[in-house]
Amino acid sequence: MRYFFYPNSVAIFGSFREGAIAREILRNIVEGGFEGKIIPVNPKGGEVEVAGKKFNIKEKLDEPVDVSIIAIPAKLVPELIRGLKGLTKGAVVISAGFSEVGNVELEKELIKAAKEAGIRVIGPNCAGIFGVHAKFYGSFEVRVNPGGLALISQSGAFGGAALAMGNEEGIGFSAFVSYGNAADLDESDFLRFFADDENTRVIGLYIEGVKDGRKFLDALRYAASKKPVIILKAGKSRAGARAAASHTGSLAGSYEIYRAAFRQAGAIEVEEMEELFDAAKAFEMYERAGRRVAIITNSGGPGVLATDKLERLGLEIAKLTEETVEELRSFLPPQCSVKNPVDLIADADYERYKRAIEVVCRDENVDAILVICVPPIFIPSEEIARAVVEANCDKPIIVNFMAGELVREGIKILESKKIKNFPTPERAAKALYWLSLRSSSE
């Protein structure tokens, strides 16, 4: 399936008038900087200009391409697929109007045609695909920054919203695939592919239901053995399951069965979109973290909130050794707390943070550190951010800088060093919890 996400050539079938889906996909591919061959196809021919580039529209495809993206009326798709035999390896069928609206026979005809032609199909009824490291944006969704998250989404609209939200959250993506009705390639195939993809560090999966439970469990187990797999499952309630069945024609099934399968495979289930991205951010930075956490803060309240959340999640508030406590006491003002959480108090500066992180990091009872910063107006957040990135520490550090304008410049420094910020103590604590799940599954 590599040709889908690292293609050298692409054909786009559809209307190229202003506002048409095929034109928007063409624009995305051009503006995204794709360096391979791009061929627009429409029986009417003509030419189209997007992003300052002119293309002749071919009346039919007459040379081989790796991928064909199809956005034409559903009833015409099977015939087009038959005609692409020997001309394309894979087809991404954007067109809707198949099993999701009860048109099961047309979908069967599409897959029969594809099998006879030797073509693999993503879709139909999907939003397309991205191969971000190949600068290939074969979708009408918002483009994203390169990184390590491969997002697999059964729902095109969810996928689009998630990509936009990922941009807001500073997430980097390796790939995106909206697979719609999964008439041929399904979530299991993509799990296996991204498990072995060199640019993917973590896999995010949005599913409503699967058709082949055994295939899914095998693929999930394989993928989760290679890298973190984060799952957001929709259709947990009875009403949600009915909605999922009508949305993509999938078998939603009992949520308890899915939940057991996720656990058995070693995947990480999250409850909300926000959590999916928080988990992805954590795993882009670290492969895993142990359960014993030290908190370093300049504000008591957020330290207490983090402590509460960590304990509720079953993590340990690390007991610092006597040596660590004594060393902290040797340079911290007497009003600072040198137990865990270590409270550096409001006027904590670069030196106080850096030394505290380094001392705590050396403690044999500490697996990971949560650094909290609520900067007073007289100490710029950039100073504390530099302390975090310059501290000599080889253990996972999760950071909570808050809030808003006060920490914007500090967060930029953190992100320039690939350190992601979690905007609340609770979200930072949960990031450590997800990292700990990978350690406990080893």
From TrEMBL:
GO MF annotation list: acetate-CoA ligase (ADP-forming) activity; ATP binding
Top-rank taxon, per record: Archaea
Pfam families for the chain: CoA_binding_2, Ligase_CoA_2, Succ_CoA_lig
EC numbers, comma separated: 6.2.1.13
Catalysed reaction, written as an equation: acetate + ATP + CoA = acetyl-CoA + ADP + phosphate
Enzyme class of the recorded protein, top EC level: ligase
InterPro entries, per the entry: Acyl-CoA_Synth/Transferase (IPR051538), CoA-bd (IPR003781), Ligase_CoA_dom (IPR043938), NAD(P)-bd_dom_sf (IPR036291), Succ_CoA_lig_flav_dom (IPR032875), Succinyl-CoA_synth-like (IPR016102)
Keyword Signal: no
Domain named CoA-binding: residues: 4-98
Keyword list, A-Z: ATP-binding, Ligase, Nucleotide-binding
PANTHER family xref list: ACETATE--COA LIGASE [ADP-FORMING]
Full protein name: acetate--CoA ligase (ADP-forming)
Organism from which the protein derives: Pyrococcus furiosus (strain ATCC 43587 / DSM 3638 / JCM 8422 / Vc1)
